[in-house]
Amino acid sequence: MLISYRGHPYTLGATVTGKGVNFCVYAPKAAKVTLCLFDKSGHSEVNRLPMFRHEGGNWSLFIEGAKAGDLYGYRVDGDYRAEKGLLFNVNKLLLDPYCKDFFGEFTWSERHFCHLPVGHLNPSDNACDMPKSKVVATEKYVGVRPNTPWSKTVIYECHVKGATVRHPEVPAKLQGKYLGLAEPVFIDHLKHIGVTAVQLLPVHAFINEQFLTTKGLKNYWGYNTLSFFTPHKSYLVSDDINEFKLMVERLHQAGIEVILDVVFNHTAEGGIDGPTISFKGFDNLTYYSTLPNKPNVYINDTGCGNTLNISNPVVLKLVLDSLRYWVEYMGVDGFRFDLATILARQTSGFSNQHAFLQALNQDPILSKVKLIAEPWDIGPGGYQLGQFPAPWREWNDKFRDTVRRFWRGDEGVLPELAMRIHGSSDVFEHNLRGPLNSINFITSHDGFSLFDWTAYEQKHNEANGEANLDGHSENYSFNCGVEGFSADPKVNELRLCMQKNALLTLFLSKGVPMICAGTEMAHSQNGNNNAYCQDNCTSWLAWKNHQQHHPLTFFIQDLLAIRKQFAAFSYLFYVHNSDSRFAVNWFNEEAKPLSPEQWREPSRKWLSYTITDQQLGQSLLIILNASDNTINIKLPQSAFSSNWKLAITTAVEVHKTDIDSYLQVPAKSAWIFTSIKGDE
After folding, report:
1. DSSP 116
2. Where is the Glycosyl hydrolase family 13 catalytic domain (predicted)?
3. How far is C-alpha 54 from the geometric centre of its chain's CA atoms?
4. Bridge partners, residue 121, by sequence
5. Quick one: average pLDDT of 166-186?
6. Number of helices and strands (H, E) in the chain?
7. What tens digit of pLDDT does each residue of 65-101 get?
């Protein structure tokens, strides 16, 4: 017979002690909360124990002899009034919002819905279709963290499964798993490129949306969170969550940090007609934002049915507790926040003084990790690039779009391009932040791959089953004359050159560079720019000729060597005319300063400029020609040596005349020259 009694109400979740396990949940409006215990199979409910109410809305129960590995769930009874936003239904087994692990899988059925139809309580019991929360005895991460400064950070955004599921040198049982990323062959690949951090697409446990399963598709990216504390189970080899921690440790040993893409803006429970899995059943109005005068209508700033109510202190605590757990216990080094504007939106709109941002800033653990915002959502005032406070970094879509437009050959882009490649001071400097607050990228998981940017001018998302209506229609892409794959060597030569041009611009810009996995091997998604549901070869990296690195891999390696050598790219502040150490100068084709009129010439689609470091005696000359014509450019005088030394070019052939040091710069090519004191 189990011995149970009132537990302590201060630590939410299931906490293992020497005598047993303390269970605690938050359900302030519930009339009754019952802890349900299951056998090892997860199928048979062996006990139901009433919990004790505490002030503040918490319920607890301590069970002597309970231990790690035990399976459980909750049933919450109370008022069911859908029109008032009250969705209590004792027939629904609920997943613990703080569970660190669970057993079994979520299976879609009508039994999950709180009401059928809306307004009528659904009496069906969903326990047979629910995973069971699992008691875990967790230990803190003890590995040595790289602690790479932002000035040296290079981010590689990748998907846990897609990165290795087709890698022939990763053992079959590890392919597509956390431990696949920990394999030496994959880590060596990252090291060869020069990557210092992997940014993983969501690894919080997630489920497939029902509308996808009915089409035979899956949520591949993972932006549909089921549990904020549990690693996604299909990425485990032996159902041991410590595999995630082992992956982190091995990456850390190689000097590579781990950043998680986290989704605290919505959950898998969807809108009012969505399933009741966890939060809805404990206290719908606490966890989700609803219209003030219509509590049955969710605010949908995510486009996914619901919006997490992070302005509520209980929900804020949940988010902070989750973040700390992943740092302290799982070893991660930072987070990229999906649709981050939502996390700082008050009833009056976005505020960079929001409690969430303040809480992170003062937290002794979270204030020291890497924090990256995707600074937009579809809600009111949703675009907030540049508005997050220090020490936040932000995805800079203006950089992405400007670089794409320039190399596509758009007119009138030069002034903005100059802003972007020197750190977007117009975006970040107003609130005392520097160029390293900008996460610069050309491509990410969302949108065309870099190869597809050079191969498709139209999206091709038919496989998503949405009549090609999903995904962005304007991608600022350039197909090099042929839509899709081509056997023409000239087309493919141009496409490779264009990819190199974009990469050169990325890595020779001020800011923190990020590339999407597969960029270094010209990965294609066949023109799909919204492959969120393509859990197949469309998204998985092919690893063709894996023993011989792709030319783009070597090219990135060379670019990072230049970036590492020149201090201008790690400088924390913007360069202005008054700067005593650094100088930036812009030139026309005669090596004279670019005039205001020339800056504004719509037809001028090339740029020549130098970055000079007086202290270290080094200078770079960068020439970018996005036009369709060869241009003769006179090189400006070298600052620290008699001649410029060519370091990298994307041009297939190099033609330089001897008369006054003129250089023939072919169409669609980029050039880097160096001048270093004492280097003759």
Report:
1. S
2. 153-563
3. 38
4. 115
5. 97
6. 15, 32
7. 999 999 999 999 999 999 999 999 999 999 999 999 9
Partner residues linked to 204 by β-bridges: 231
Mean pLDDT of 663-672: 96
Q: Is the pLDDT of residue 504 over 90?
A: yes
Q: Is 195 left (phi over 0), alpha (psi -120 to 50) or beta?
A: beta
Q: What is the dihedral of CA 441, 442, 448, 450, to 10 degrees?
A: -120
Does the pLDDT at position 409 exceed 60? yes
Confidence of residue 680 (pLDDT cuts 50, 70, 90): low
Contacts with 228 (C-beta within 8 Å, 6 or more apart), sequence order: 97, 204, 262, 264, 318, 319, 322
Strands of 78-165, DSSP E: 80-81, 86-87, 101-103, 132-134, 155-158
Measure the CA–CA gap between 347 and 225, rounded to whole angstroms: 24
- Give how far the C-alpha of residue 309 lies from the chain's centroid of Cα atoms, to the nearest Å: 21
With the C-alpha atoms ordered 251, 252, 257, 261, is the resulting torsion angle positive or negative? Answer: positive
The residues annotated with a catalytic role in the active site are 338, 374
Q: Is residue 296 a contact partner of residue 290, using CB atoms and an 8 Å limit?
A: yes
Token couple for 576: 């202005």
Rounded CA gap, 667 and 625, in Å?
6
Q: What is the pLDDT of residue 402?
A: 98
Determine the longest span between alpha carbons in the chain, in angstroms.
97
Residues 546-576 pLDDT 10s: 656 899 999 999 999 999 999 999 999 999 9
Tokens 């930036």 -> residue: 584
Range of the domain at 672: 582-676
The CATH number of residue 68's host domain is: 2.60.40.10
Asked if the model's pLDDT at residue 657 lies above 60, the reply is no
> For residue 653, is it within any domain?
yes
Q: What is the DSSP letter of 163?
A: H
**659 — pLDDT class (breaks 50, 70, 90):** very low
Residue 284 lies in a domain: no
3-state secondary structure of 369: coil
Rounded to 5 degrees, φ, ψ at 593 are -55, 135
User: 13-25: b or e for each residue (b if 16 or more CB lie within 10 Å)?
Assistant: bbbbeeebbbbbb
- The model carries a pTM of 0.97
Place of tokens 């001071």: 425
Query: Residue 441 — φ and ψ, nearest 5°?
Result: -155, 155
In 3D space, the residue among 331, 321, 397 whose CA is nearest the CA of residue 360 turns out to be: 321
| Separation CA 195–CA 146 (nearest Å) | 13
Q: For 345-382, how does the pLDDT look when each residue is reduced to its tens digit (9 = 90+)? A: 998 899 999 999 999 999 999 999 999 999 999 999 99
Could you tell me the CATH number of the domain that includes residue 651?
2.60.40.1180
Question: Directed axis angle between helix 414-421 and helix 397-408, to 10°?
Answer: 130
- Answer yes or no: is 64 within a domain: yes
CA dist., res. 345 & res. 309, Å (int): 10
Amino acid present at 199: Q
- Please state the separation of Cα 399 from the chain's center in Å: 17
| CA distances, 659 to each of 276, 312, 586, 634, 655 (Å) | 76, 71, 22, 9, 12
- Specify whether the CB–CB gap between 121 and 89 falls below 8 A: yes
Q: How many domains does the chain fold into?
A: 2
Q: Over range 439-460, report the average pLDDT.
A: 98
Give CA–CA dist 74/51, Å, rounded. Answer: 10
Q: Is 267 helix (H, G, I), strand (E, B) or coil?
A: coil
List, for residues 94-111, the tens digit of each pLDDT value: 999 999 999 999 999 999
Written as six digits, the tokens of 629 are: 């014509």
Q: Show which of 115, 134, 153 is a domain's final residue.
A: 134
